[in-house]
Amino acid sequence: FRPASWVSLKLAVTQTLSSTTATSCWPGCTRAPTRRDTANAAKANIAAATSARDVLNAQIKVLQAQLKDAQQQVGYSRIVAPVDGRIGRRSVEVGARVQPGQQLVAVVEDKVWVTANFKETQLAGLKRGQEVELAVDALPDEHLVGRVDSFSPASGNQFALLPADNATGNFTKIVQRVPVKIVFDQKDVQRLSGRLVPGMSVVAEIDLRQKADATHTAAR
What we know:
The chain has helices at about 5-25, 35-75, 185-190, and strands spanning about 85-90, 105-110, 115-120, 130-135, 145-150, 175-185, 200-205, 215-220. By secondary structure, it is α+β, with helices and mostly antiparallel strands. The protein has three domains: about 35-75; about 80-110, no CATH class; about 110-165 and about 175-220, Elongation Factor Tu (Ef-tu), domain 3. It has a six-stranded antiparallel sheet.
């Protein structure tokens, strides 16, 4: 025969031990990590990696800005001609100091063309693409052929330093000259490289053939 109080005490002790076993372990053992602990650790690692990435990205932007500034500074020490060509005149020497806007060299382009100043009365039959016979005074034995490339948007008088002003009413009609750009055949330019230079005198003749009649318009 056991007292009822003893049975109740034993039951309470058993329940307490069962509850303790479910939430902890005996001394000397280790508790296995739960899924929640693993997830929390992973989140902490992700946050740390994200923070480190942001720091590295900021450092990269700073370094890129420094690199761009350094490249710009290096670019200031190198002067590049705006066109391809040959140096015709040099106004500086090695070691000389230069100022912004100062002319250093005169570059002559490899491309050459003719500016023919035709009379305004001769422009009626001229069109782009027409063949032009060119006679260069410096090359009397060469027969060169070119083509009309473009027409000036105004007469040569309009680009003069002091253009004529007829606002006073004293108008005297004078035949104006209109610059016409004529380009050489590329084969001739390559063949005569170094011999065709700017400033030479050229006579340009264009055949304005209409039906059976043939006339020539010449400009120098």
